[in-house]
Amino acid sequence: MKSLFLVFVFAIFLQCESKKFTRCELVQQMRSHGFPEDKMRDWVCLVESESSRTTHYVGKVNKNGSRDYGLFQINDKYWCSNTSTAGKDCNVTCNDLLTDDITKAAKCAKKVYKRHGFNAWYGWKNKCQGSLPDISSC
Fold first, then answer.
1. Is position 50 annotated as part of the catalytic site?
2. Calpha distance 70→102 (Å, rounded)
3. Where are the alpha helices (DSSP H) in the chain?
4. Any idea where the Glycosyl hydrolases family 22 (GH22) domain is (predicted)?
5. How far is CA 27 from CA 8, 126, 136, in A?
6. Structure pTM?
7. Quick one: which of 24, 82, 87, 102 has the most CB atoms within 10 Å?
8. Which residue out of 48, 50, 76, 96 is catalytically annotated?
9. How much of the chain, in percent, has pLDDT values that exceed 70?
10. pLDDT for res 95
11. Is 96 a catalytic residue?
């Protein structure tokens, strides 16, 4: 019985563990998902400012009661559904944005950007308009 409990705890630990990308791993992932090279430094800065390059990051509750999810900190008020059914503008669940496979998160982030630009993210507005990270070695 004790060993069954330990297996259960270990399984939960594995599910809770998130991926923290290095800067160059993030650049490689974003290139593979079609992010434009001329905006790559902005995207990297945004992700570093919003989630510290961590896939499973869930932000604190915002003033309006909404939350931000995942690598790109996608907001659940408009973009992802907090139920088990995909929905809202990105047609995903918020949990879909917390996986190490960033395919759905990348697609949704690009949709947010297409509508609102980088100004949709406070992390970018507050930290990325002066200097952008160096990705020349990536």
1. yes
2. 9
3. 2-16, 23-32, 40-51, 103-116, 122-127
4. 90-108
5. 35, 21, 10
6. 0.87
7. 102
8. 50
9. 88
10. 98
11. no
- Per the CB < 8 A criterion, the answer to whether 112 and 120 are in contact is yes
- How many angstroms separate the CA atoms of 15 and 8, rounded? 11
Distances (CA, A) of 57 to 94, 97, 99, 122, 135: 11, 9, 10, 16, 23
With 0-12 / 13-18 / 19 or more C-beta atoms within 10 angstroms meaning exposed / middle / buried, residue 89 is middle
Residue of 38, 42, 48, 68 marked active site: 68
Q: What is the pLDDT of residue 16?
A: 55
The residues that bridge with 58 in the sheet, in sequence order, are 69
* pLDDT at site 18: 87
Name residues whose C-beta falls within 8 Å of residue 129's C-beta, 6 or more positions apart in sequence.
none
